Amino acid sequence: MGNISVEFSLEQLQAIVVLANNQLFRVKYIDPKMPGHVNRPEQLEIFKEAVQIVEAALNKAKGIKARSA
Question: Which DSSP symbol is given to 35?
Fold first, then answer.
């Protein structure tokens, strides 16, 4: 898979992070309770990684330092 570059304002990027986190919550906690749901843990991990990358970029742009793990 290739990489792409796009430009967003901080406000737009913040909106995307909020929407992505809401969707991630739905996929993780609500969807498994739905009839016929197929669990895809590898897809959930890709979602989490993508959200973390975008959040890190947003925090960096805002001047927020990453937490030490």
Answer: T
Output 50-59 pairs: Cβ under 8 A, ≥24 positions apart: 50/20, 51/17, 51/20, 51/21, 51/24, 54/13, 54/16, 54/17, 54/20, 55/17, 57/13, 58/10, 58/13, 58/14, 58/17
Q: What is the pLDDT of residues 10-26, one digit of tens each?
A: 999 899 999 999 999 99
Distance (Å, rounded) from C-alpha 11 to C-alpha 18? 11
Q: Closest Cα to residue 66, out of 52, 56, 58?
A: 56
Q: Bin 36: left if φ > 0, else alpha if -120 < ψ < 50, else beta.
A: left
The three-class DSSP label of residue 38 is: coil
What pTM, to 2 d.p., does this model score?
0.72
